[in-house]
Sequence to fold (132 residues):
Amino acid sequence: MIEVACAIIEKDGLVLAAQRSERMSLPLKWEFPGGKIEPGETAEECLCRELFEEMGISVAVKKCLPASTYHYPKASVTLYPFVCSIASGEIVLDEHAAINWLPPEELQNLDWAEADVAVIESYLATCESCSR
Fold:
């Protein structure tokens, strides 16, 4: 079981999607940025560390969404999603191939890593600024 914290970063009514690089597992799939939770680390601490390491940003956490588990053929992944905003820094792509800022209702148009699909659904069900 791999435990991962991920960020649904909101800005001006848009949501950040990050495309995995060709050298990562699930190459070129889209995901919410974040990373593996280290021993002794909370999901929120992990999120803040990973986003600073991978993208050079600090985030302000607004709320957490329910954890979601997906079973890939070789491993199971539990995502701990947090709705955030950028508190400081400018995004630098060290790990990802690309980013895209999308209106929430267009998130499902991308080719997402399967584990992130349930997170999108949960986010859209609770999103205050989403069109319904």
